[in-house]
Amino acid sequence: MIMAATSASNSLHIPVLLDEVIHSLAITPGAEIVDGTFGAGGYSQAFLARGAKVHAFDRDPQAQTIGAELAGRSEDAFRLYPACFSSMDAVLADHGIGAVDAVVLDIGISSMQIDEAQRGFSFQNDGPLDMRMSQDGKSASDFVNAASEEAIANIIYQYGDEPKSRRIARAIVAARPLSRTSELANAVRKAVGHRPGAPKDPATRTFQAIRIHINQELTELEQGLVAAERLLKPGGRLVVVAFHSLEDRIVKRFLKERSGSMGAGSRHMPVANTGGPAPSFQKPDKAVRPSRTETDRNPRARSAILRAATRTGAPAWDNRRAAA
After folding, report:
1. DSSP 67-85
2. What pLDDT, in 10s, does the model give residues 65-108?
3. 163-195 pLDDT per residue, tens
4. Domain boundaries 18-112+217-310, CATH class
5. Which of 91, 48, 50, 96 is nearest to 72 (CA)?
6. SS3 sequence, 12-63?
7. Any idea where the domains of the chain sit in the sequence?
8. Neighbours of 182 (CB within 10 A)
9. How far apart are alpha carbons 204 and 199 in whole angstroms?
10. Which pTM does this prediction carry?
């Protein structure tokens, strides 16, 4: 959910790949769209400007405040639900909405969260070691100060793709207690070595991994894709913008599987006819990446990738409603 940096006086943050998302949706007046990751409201405002009715979701209280302001000037065209997007179908069902025309998910973390030191997502500016999107529950500090060395190493390796995860975990445990982002970053740098001015800080992967773990981001994405499948009308559009390979692999596999586009085997090992469910999505569109112009304007957009597909009329593969 990386959005272009703006001045404090500019309330509209421009999300990555906004033009491409709008083009992919082909919005018509009156269309009902779920903005599953509201953030600072850039997507939602663009959808509203094109005559759509928007149902937005966000677990971040800061985003909810922005959403309340937007709702106040959007009459009945916009509503923000203070909930995770993984529960979108159940929450909307409770409000009498059984199907929508589109679901958009902009996965990850927003500039609004990164740039505020008090949220503890980044080591660029020292702040409390927090990282909670919902500002509730277990914080990053709670995790690094209580988890075993093995558990910390496993999280850093699994979600950060960090080859030196065990060395970093030992350094974190040795440095405990940790309460500031600078303390965690310095422990990582000391463990693996750090050259000032290097293009990538060695703490980057560790911070990413701990953030993903604290917020259960990959589980949320997996459940959110299934919820979107249940909620979309035939012909409805699912559009997902991801920012790193862990997220993108989940989205890519989901769309390939649900569209019946998984590997076709070979003449030596043909795919068996398992009699499984009919495809719930058409073949996914070609993946889209940001233009050079966009990445020059917003370097944080460099890793973004958009995937989209159209819902068929076949039943969702899992019709069980998620708990609200």
Report:
1. HHHHHHTSTTSEEEESS-G
2. 989 999 988 889 999 999 999 999 999 999 999 999 999 999 97
3. 999 999 999 999 999 999 999 999 999 999 887
4. alpha beta
5. 48
6. CCCECCHHHHHHHHCCCCCCEEEECCCCCCHHHHHHHHCCCEEEEECCCHHH
7. 18-112+217-310, 118-215
8. 16
9. 11
10. 0.89
